[in-house]
Amino acid sequence: MEEFLSIHLQAYLYSTFPPAIVSCDGYLTWDQIAPRENNPIAIWKFSAAIHARRKFMQTHTLLKTLVLILLLISKPAFAQSTADEEAILNTVDQFFTALAERNRQLLASISVQGSLNISTSINTGGDQRIRIQNYTQLLNNLSSDGPALLERYWDPTVLIQRDIAVFWAPYDFHVNGEFSHCGIDSFQLIKRDERWLLTNLSWTVERTGCAESPLGPPA
């Protein structure tokens, strides 16, 4: 910005004064114009150039101040948003860990009581199937006995507005090491006591037409 304004000021000066009386840095001095001091037009032009220089410096100072203020305002907000996003992804990661480990205690610690869990799928007949689980049912389904579960996500999108957030990401799901289905996860979270907790979980279930996961096969 400073270079841009300086170039335009120099262009104004060179268009106003003969090159012989314009200094190499684009600014005029009285010594340079003194031989023309009896010329009223030259004196008036010199005064106009001084005024333009002052306006340039004022504008330059104002722009620097505005940029500094914007930086000071945006940095804390950006830092807070980044910290919240990391905390949200950490909560989501803990959810998938709870599934893999069948850890009901962990799941309960990151969920809000009364939350709902809704999945939607299309059966072999082409009909939509919606499954709704409440908080207690989800915990009870995560018994110590059962097949090995693995859910993975990638390219997450996180939207945050103060104390609420949405997590959205494609995922794949494996049972006992075998691919089961893919889909989209849409989780809602709320911030309480400086912790991000799951409130409602929704996801689609697609058993066909799944693109290959960028994560590759499960380890």
Q: How do the strands and helices of this protein lay out in sequence?
A:
Elements: H1 2-16, H2 30-33, H3 40-101, H4 104-109, E1 111-122, E2 128-134, H5 135-141, E3 149-153, E4 157-161, E5 164-175, E6 178-192, E7 195-205
Parallel strand pairs: 1-7
Antiparallel strand pairs: 1-2, 3-5, 4-5, 5-6, 6-7
Description:
By secondary structure, this protein is of the alpha+beta class. The protein folds into two domains: 2-77; 81-205, Roll (Nuclear Transport Factor 2, Chain: A). The protein is built from five helices and seven strands. Strands 1, 2, 3, 4, 5, 6 and 7 form a seven-stranded mixed β-sheet that branches. Strand 5 (164-175) and strand 6 form a beta hairpin. Helix 1 runs antiparallel to helix 3. The longest helix has 62 residues, at 40-101.
Brief rundown of the structure:
With 219 residues, this protein is α+β, with helices and mostly antiparallel strands. The protein has helices at residues 2-16, 30-33, 40-101, 104-109, 135-141; strands at residues 111-122, 128-134, 149-153, 157-161, 164-175, 178-192, 195-205. It folds into two domains: 2-77; 81-205, Nuclear Transport Factor 2, Chain: A, CATH 3.10.450.50.
**Regions with little confidence, pLDDT below 50 for 5+ residues:** 1-28
How is the CATH topology of the largest domain named?
A: Nuclear Transport Factor 2, Chain: A
> Strand percentage, roughly?
25-35%
Biggest sheet record: 7 strands, mixed
Count of DSSP H/I helices: 5
Q: How many domains, in number, for the residues? A: 2
Helicity range: 40-55%
H/E element order: HHHHEEHEEEEE
Number of strands: 7
CATH level-1 class of the largest domain: Alpha Beta
Distance between the termini: 52 Å
The residue-averaged pLDDT reads 80
Net shape: elongated
Rg to the nearest angstrom? 33 Å
Structural class: alpha+beta
From the 3D coordinates, which CATH architecture of the largest domain would you assign?
Roll
